[in-house]
Amino acid sequence: MSIRDLARHLNISIGTVSRALNGKSDVNPETRERVLQAAKELGYVPNQSGRSLRQGTTNTIGFMIESSIETADNGGSFFMPVFEGVQSVFRRHQLDLVALLCGTDEDPGAYLNRIVGRRFVDGLIISATMRNDPRITFLLERKIPFVTLGRSATGGQYPWIDLDFEGVAATAVTRLLKFGHQRIAIGVPASDINLGYVFVDGYRRALSAHGISFDPDLVFRANSNEEGGYRVATAMLAQKQMPTAVILVNENMAIGLYRRFYEAGIHPGRDIAVVGFRESTQSRFLSPTLTCFRISLRDLGIKLAEALLSTMPAFASNYPQDSIDLVWPMELVPGESDGPWLGT
Amino acid sequence: MSIRDLARHLNISIGTVSRALNGKSDVNPETRERVLQAAKELGYVPNQSGRSLRQGTTNTIGFMIESSIETADNGGSFFMPVFEGVQSVFRRHQLDLVALLCGTDEDPGAYLNRIVGRRFVDGLIISATMRNDPRITFLLERKIPFVTLGRSATGGQYPWIDLDFEGVAATAVTRLLKFGHQRIAIGVPASDINLGYVFVDGYRRALSAHGISFDPDLVFRANSNEEGGYRVATAMLAQKQMPTAVILVNENMAIGLYRRFYEAGIHPGRDIAVVGFRESTQSRFLSPTLTCFRISLRDLGIKLAEALLSTMPAFASNYPQDSIDLVWPMELVPGESDGPWLGT
DNA sequence: ATGGCTTCCGTAAACGTTTACGATTTCATA
DNA sequence: TATGAAATCGTAAACGTTTACGGAAGCCAT
């Protein structure tokens, strides 16, 4: 069922059929109607390869999602809603979105090189941005439109959207200080993901804004999952003077942390304050419910899509450049996991 | 950087270049070496559109992942490891795997029709199979190779792999009966996903095998997330005679269930037995830790890939047909959430 | 010297689209 | 009526690749 078959069936040329289907102006409205009708009846859908070959564009966007061991167990709850949002925008432009999950046993650079080299996608969304991310320099020199979810220390001119980790750190720190806490710890990912650096920076700045000196012993690095949270709690318990509060960069860590404290007979929310990130269905149903930060992942996805489109020549006219380099604000949702310090 | 440029640069014809790159036999080893060398130096990667157009094959497989509201929050933890496994097999055959997430505001049938019509993929993996799934009949009549994760009541000849829900139900029921429980409830998804039907069937059969009559009031339907678990617990509490044990089809439900019981002052593992499904990082760190079933999702993914390849003419020779229609066994992992019935 | 292999390589068609260009018709206007 | 513009459509080239086919060269045996 090619366009040629369709043309033969209608007794008109394939050029006219193509123009009719693509909404070009120089075609008789009546003919167009006949073509569209026949296309629907015969179930004709244009072959993407032929179209791509001719126009040099694939009408697909790739969303590269990290699937490392660390994030494999919880990444989905984050990415799925974002993906939803991105897709809702692309659908309006007949763009198909595909998720590209680079396997753990393949080098992300090589993977990206293959995808880009094959002209598989017209643009890319890059997530889990590293502090120094070779993917960014690669895409820049290949002039592939892209946007990153998460800023990076890598140089160059490209749009990025990131969560407001400084804001989160500042809000959490001030809140906990107001509650009377003095030793406030944080739990951040052990990997080289840039998120960790930004978070620690924000934490540091927030502390110094209140005249409190930074204590490196209060920064706990671990995997961003339940096991990591468990380890953080264990490390906290081992300190001569245990922190009275802790800020976690990942809500999955909270479960492991809760568990470790439960084993030690320590009640989060009473004996120790916990602030998590980010709000999810989970955080509302933990006991105690987690104080954390709310964010509309779907809206984030929408902004991501718009930022990408603004860098693509074919769509840039509809999307002004001002939607790029965005720091996404988040709102604190109080839970039962923190409160006034009752200790000595 | 097309094959033509490469040929010009080497002063040989494009036909020879193509043959050299594709490992055809009728090319001088020395020439082949030169071609491969030049391709690497100049960073040549064959254009996928051109290749697809010519061979009628795209070298990509689609993994259609459900992203409905219900599963958006937890689907990732399940699919990511499966995806990993699938990808590890496809990589060996130079096949690229892409995740296709059908947005919630688009009809899955229409989405699939577009993907297939465009000749976007050579094969498909379908998940979240419905009891009556129009996608299956569609793919069958279009003769697109596919495999489903989850069996279906839809007729036709196609490979599927499913988890052993009967086994899970039987094991859980016998275990709980041995513990002295009499009123054993189950929590299953409210949607039309076939998984729910199979699970209830297994539960029913397991009960009757022990001479216990089936009580429809013990089947609780809810969303497969934390909120659903909360609702299930609420419904259980409302019954005149509360069940003494409950089997959940989703471990995320356990969190919500725990929460509701916590609010009611009831301790899972002591006052009520909970058996969950499936084991995850979470289930090991909940308090109490969840008795549940273990499964290697990566291995599951590998089998899925093999089943699909066995139906694709180009690969079938390497993959015998016996790997299809598989019921995946699972192993129980005891936790703290169930035990002997201590009630009256 | 001729014929027949084998080895290697070039030529050209084909895949399904889109689109620049030109051809034809229609129609109003001079 | 002649003319030009507008509307509509057909023709053919082009995108990058693979591959069937044939040709050229080399070699060996007759």
Identify the notable features of this structure and list them briefly.
3 domains, 344 residues, DNA-binding, homodimer, 434 Repressor (Amino-terminal Domain), Rossmann fold
CATH class of the largest domain in chain A: Alpha Beta
Give the SSE string of chain A: HHHHEHHEHEHEEHEHEHEHEHEHEE
- The CATH topology of the largest domain in chain A comes to Rossmann fold
Distance between the termini of chain A: 79 Å
Assembly state (oligomeric): homodimer
Annotation, overall tally of beta strands of chain A: 12
CATH superfamily of the largest domain in chain A: Response regulator
Average pLDDT rating of chain A: 91
Please indicate the count of domains of chain A: 3
Structural write-up:
The structure is a homodimer of 344-residue chains. With 344 residues, chain A is an alpha/beta fold. The first copy, chain A, has three domains: 3-46, 434 Repressor (Amino-terminal Domain) (Orthogonal Bundle), CATH 1.10.260; 60-163 and 297-328, Rossmann fold (3-Layer(aba) Sandwich), CATH 3.40.50; 165-294, Response regulator (Rossmann fold), CATH 3.40.50.2300. Chain A is 44% helix and 15% strand. The first copy, chain A, contains 14 helices and twelve strands. Chain A has helices spanning 3-10, 14-21, 29-42, 48-55, 69-72, 75-91, 108-117, 134-142, 165-178, 194-209, 226-238, 251-263, 281-285, 297-309, and strands spanning 60-65, 96-101, 123-126, 146-149, 160-163, 184-189, 219-222, 245-248, 273-275, 292-294, 326-328, 331-333. In chain A, the strands form three sheets. The first copy, chain A, has a six-stranded parallel beta sheet with strand order 2-1-3-4-5-11, sandwiched between helices. The first copy, chain A, has a four-stranded parallel beta sheet with strand order 7-6-8-9, with helices on both faces. In chain A, helix 8 (134-142) links the parallel strand 3 (123-126) and strand 4. Residues 69-73 of chain A have low confidence and may be disordered. Chains A and B meet through helix 4, helix 6, strand 2, helix 7 and helix 11 of A and helix 4, helix 6, strand 2, helix 7 and helix 11 of B.
